[in-house]
Write a structure and sequence with these properties.
This protein is mainly beta. The chain has 13 helices and 51 strands. Residues 1-23 have low confidence and may be disordered.
């Protein structure tokens, strides 16, 4: 029989094991905060180094973890923060995490609120203020170029104050506007590029008067999850502009200054006067003529041979850039304030052309009680655009068209030459000025009803007025009996917005975070033209105010109204809601819905509903990812939803009639617009899938996204049968559909990250596939790109060039050879052989950047690029085609001269009949003038020095930086016609959608150098 003592010993040992085990471990508690502001960090990972034991911090930043007694170090990591090893020196540990370079913990602005980037489930790109003001762009939106994946920014031209064409993830419309919605501090603002049509061959840019120095950041909302809260206005994306606000502390002042010069980035190369005469004579003789060729302008050969006028040189200069900005910020427990003032004058390289901006902004944040807060914002900006005609309207357009090098500026008697185009005469004998006044203001009241429940009321006003002043001298109007003529044409727009929201934040058992948003919004917008005034005067009205007042009084005395009835008036009434849910800092869900009602649409379809849903999964927070130490952040994101587009003129759903002439002494009416009670929004079904990542201690960060958008019920202004007596009318084309799908990649690499030396490179690239899936059975002629030789064709991108295909030159006789519709070669030109070719949509767009810093020095650059797509040179058929009364581009020198020559251009002729079937040089619409749109441009390059604050203390200066920046310094392109970045003047939204790759005497972009100073004191 076994003794009992060993059994007792075993039992005693088993009983002691828990005590022994407890003696080999310990519990550590602590709190984790953000080093930048002291706020708690929830969801941070806490692990025992060398062990798999770990936990996560709670919503208040606290944690508790039982670890082996021998553990000496804890590893703390959080999304958006640098990983930190903390020694276990006590049972209670306080940890302050520093923000990582990935900025994943930053706050981004979303529709009607803010959100931590790591919780965002939509496609949002943020651009900081420093990146917006780095270059002397004509308007703030042009500075976005190359800085956001999937956002194509085509700067309009080199004219001062010119606007840009912005397309976010492709072109999703034909007849409605495809520009994004612009929202400043929650106010959807006036941004219509067609307020003044394209007078002077330039669409006026209402955004130019907005002061870039007021902007704190810009968020670009690209998918349904991000833009869906704006419902019927979100299909083209949303650009949220947040202005600077006051900060706590004593008054702090900041002064910015830029001084620089500007010229043109690229220019077409034209032949000289002697060369032009030689080519003219060659064409004359090729046509079988003898003797000297007749010359335009009434000139003899003897007179013409004396001239070699460089009109481009006569109309251009080195422009001067001068910008000053001063701001003050201060704050205490009761009020925080920001006050800023700006003056800038930016001369373009065109003589007499400049844009002067004067701006003043005040932003106040009041804490009336701990629960009741208010913000008051007001900004006034005045923009003075000293204009010159361009493109088809003259000026530099004349220098690229009918101002021949054989023309003189002056006759022998020193009077102006008037036998042909003389843009110098117009420059000196006319004045043209647009003055814009813009006031944007808003008041917001926020009250915390109970803990975490906030009610917010917003009221805002956006006022825009424009005055177009022109003056023509007696020499210009050829009437010495008059001192000259002053002309004025004013307009104004008003935009009221009121909204109310309720936001409730609820946290359940630390792991569940909810944010509920419900809101209503009302918007009313209208425009009014003031009566056009024209009077004899020796100076413009802005220098003769009493004459203008007298003219208005005279008109008023006749009973004529001084203001037109409101036009393009519209109202929006909306309700919306959004729910955000985050579980354990790993899983995020969002759902939103908006119901919009619009006065633009018919009674049968006046309201539309736009829902969205999205989700995000932060994989790097999962336990199974803890072994992958090199991955700091990994997140999957997906969204789907409906958005709309209502960007058409108002008053198109009802019948209109106009007063006609009398018939049999009785008044008559004639029909204007045909009514359509079913008119409604275009709808876009938008899907987005993305992965965001940060690795190798946040040295590698980036995002890869795929999107798929289908737009249906396209809005078109189509014709009706002439027998109905109506003209065009707007309708939704049943069964119509546009597809946009693409891939976006952004990547940033921090190659060196040392105390005094850092070097990073990055960039983004995006590919968008665009196709018109269906036009609902309508023909391609249902929508055209104005006079730009583009149209819509099912199976092709929106905006396809429609041209006769050029094969080449017959080396035997120098005549052009074309393809007919069946692909056979022919020497007979016919517009019936036009085919869809080329595309306004490039294959790839993007930007490449670098940032090198050493101690106080900073060296940065940004290259932008376009790969694929086409440029159609609408002026090339006159500059490099039939020899008439236009200038000749130098690339036409590659022309046929004798049998056996292999050349690009056929033999010269002055007679369109030489090329069989060509009725007019204006009909010379062929791929001969279609070019590859690819280019690489050094958009920005900057060298700066940031002074050591310790050296500035004696001067009572907190910080100072000096820099020199260049813009558009280098351009690599195969396009021979000048600047490859094309955005000409447009007649209407359809023209703008279909023809951004068309150029017609477009002034090239500006190239500039600026020296800058930034001082904080």
């Amino acid at each position: 029989m076994m003794p009992k003592r060993p059994l007792v010993g075993v039992l005693m040992l088993l009983l002691c094991l828990p005590v022994f085990s407890w003696a080999q471990s310990k519990t550590v508690t602590g709190k984790i905060t953000d080093a930048s502001n002291g706020t708690p960090v929830a969801g941070a990972s806490v692990t025992a180094k060398g062990s798999k034991q770990g936990t996560s911090s709670k919503s208040d930043g606290s944690f508790s973890l039982t670890i082996p007694a021998a553990t000496a170090t804890l590893t703390i990591s959080g999304v958006g923060f640098e990983t930190q090893d903390v020694p276990v020196a006590a049972d209670v540990i306080l940890v302050s995490l520093k923000g990582a370079a990935s900025n994943l913990n930053e706050v981004v602005v979303i529709g009607y609120g803010t959100q931590r980037r790591r919780d965002v489930t939509g496609a949002i790109t943020k651009v900081s203020a420093e990146k917006l003001t780095s270059i002397a762009a004509p308007s703030f939106e042009a500075a976005l170029q190359g800085k956001a994946p999937g956002v194509q920014v085509i700067q309009g031209s080199g004219l001062a104050g010119s606007g840009s064409v912005i397309r976010i993830r492709g072109i999703a419309s034909i007849g409605a506007g495809a520009d994004p919605l612009y929202v400043v501090d929650g106010i959807p603002i006036i941004a219509d590029a067609f307020l003044r049509g394209n007078s002077g061959a330039m669409n006026q840019n209402p955004l130019a008067s907005i002061n870039p120095n007021d902007i704190e950041s810009i968020e670009i909302l690209k998918d349904a999850a991000a833009a869906g809260i704006y419902g019927s206005r979100g299909s083209n994306g949303v650009i949220l502009i947040t202005t600077k606000r006051g900060k706590s502390g004593k008054p702090s002042y900041n002064y910015n200054n830029k001084i620089g010069i500007s010229t043109y980035a690229n220019k077409p190369d034209f032949v000289s006067g002697p060369e032009w005469l030689q080519l003219r004579q060659e064409a004359w003789e090729n046509d079988g003529n003898t003797g000297k060729a007749p010359l335009p302008g009434g000139l003899t050969w003897e007179q013409a041979e004396k001239n070699n006028t460089d009109w481009w040189d006569q109309l251009t200069r080195t422009g001067f850039i001068n910008e000053h900005s001063l701001s003050m910020t201060q704050g205490n427990k009761l009020v925080k304030s920001f006050v800023g003032a700006t003056y800038s004058e930016n001369q373009s390289y065109l003589k007499n052309n400049s844009y002067t901006r004067l701006g003043l902004r005040t932003n106040f944040d009041f804490t009336i009680t701990p629960k009741f807060k208010a913000t008051l914002s007001a900004a006034y900006n005045r923009g003075i655009n000293k204009r010159v005609p361009a493109a088809w309207a003259g000026g530099l357009g004349d220098a690229m068209s009918t101002a021949l090098p054989i023309y003189p500026i002056y006759n022998d008697d020193k009077t102006w030459f008037t036998g042909g185009a003389n843009p110098v005469r117009r420059l000196n004998e006319t004045l043209w000025r647009n003055t814009d006044h813009r006031l944007i203001g808003g008041l917001m009241l926020d009250y915390e009803v109970i803990k975490n429940l906030n009610l917010r009321v917003n009221g805002s006003y956006d006022y825009l007025s424009g005055i177009d002043d022109q003056w023509e001298s007696s020499n210009w109007i050829n009437d010495t009996q008059k001192p000259g003529i002053a002309k004025r044409s004013p307009y104004r727009g008003k935009n009221w917005v009121a909204s109310g929201t309720a936001t409730y934040n609820w946290t359940y058992k630390d792991d569940h975070r909810f944010t509920f948003l419900a809101g209503i919004e009302f918007q009313e917008k209208s425009f009014v033209n003031r009566v056009y005034v024209e009077k004899n005067s020796d100076k413009p009205f802005y220098k003769n105010k009493s004459l203008y007042k007298h003219a208005l009084d005279s008109i008023k005395a006749t009973g004529t109204p001084l203001n037109s009835p409101a036009f393009n008036a519209e109202t929006f009434a909306s309700v919306f809601g959004r729910i955000n849910y985050v579980y354990k800092e790993r899983y995020a869900l969002q759902a939103s819905v908006r119901r919009d009602g619009s006065s633009k649409f018919g009674p049968n379809k006046k309201y539309g509903v736009f829902p969205t849903i999205s989700a995000g999964w932060t994989i790097s927070q999962e336990d199974f990812m803890q072994d992958f130490k090199f991955i700091n952040f990994l997140k999957l994101r997906a969204s789907y939803g409906l958005t709309g587009n209502s960007n058409i003129p108002s008053g198109r759903y009802y019948y209109t009639y106009y007063a006609g002439s009398q018939y049999n002494t009785q008044p008559t009416l004639y029909p204007g617009n045909i009514g359509n009670p079913d008119l409604h929004w275009e709808e876009t079904a938008n899907m987005d899938l993305a992965i965001e990542f940060a690795a190798v201690n946040n040295r590698i960060t980036g995002e890869l996204a795929y999107y798929h958008k289908k737009t249906t019920d396209l809005l078109l202004n189509t014709a009706v049968s002439p027998s109905n007596s109506f003209g065009d009318f707007y309708r939704n084309v049943e069964g119509s559909e546009i597809l946009n799908q693409g891939i976006e990649l952004s990547l940033n690499l921090k190659l060196i990250n040392q105390k005094d030396l850092s070097f990073s490179v990055g960039g983004n690239i995006a590919k968008n596939y665009n196709e018109l899936i269906s036009l609902g059975g309508l023909s391609a002629d249902a929508a055209g790109g104005g006079s730009n030789d583009t149209r819509v064709v099912v199976g092709y991108p929106v905006g396809t060039n429609y041209l006769v295909r050029y094969y080449g030159v017959d080396p035997d006789d120098g005549l052009p050879i074309w393809y007919d519709k069946s692909g056979k070669l022919t020497k007979t030109f016919s517009l019936d052989n036009r085919m869809p070719v080329g595309s306004v949509v490039p294959d790839f767009i993007g930007g490449l950047n670098h940032n090198l810093s050493y101690k106080g020095f900073e060296f940065t650059s940004l290259w932008t690029f376009t790969i694929g797509g086409n440029i159609y040179d609408g002026s090339g058929k006159r500059q490099a085609g039939i020899i008439t009364d236009w200038v000749i581009r130098r690339d036409l020198l590659d022309r046929w001269r004798q049998p056996g020559d292999v050349t690009k251009f056929p033999r010269l002729t002055m007679n369109t009949g030489t090329y069989a079937g060509l009725s007019s040089e204006w009909q010379y619409n062929s791929t001969m003038f279609l070019y590859d749109a690819s280019f690489l441009r050094l958009r920005e390059i900057s060298l700066g020095y940031r002074f050591d604050p310790k050296l500035l203390t004696r001067l009572h200066v907190k910080g100072a930086r000096v820099f020199v920046t260049g813009m558009n310094l280098l351009t690599f392109t195969k396009y021979p016609g000048g600047d490859p970045e094309i955005a000409r003047d447009f007649e209407n939204p359809t023209d703008r959608n279909l023809s951004p790759n068309i150029t017609y005497l477009t002034p090239p972009q500006q190239k500039s150098w600026v020296i800058g100073l930034n001082v904080t004191f």
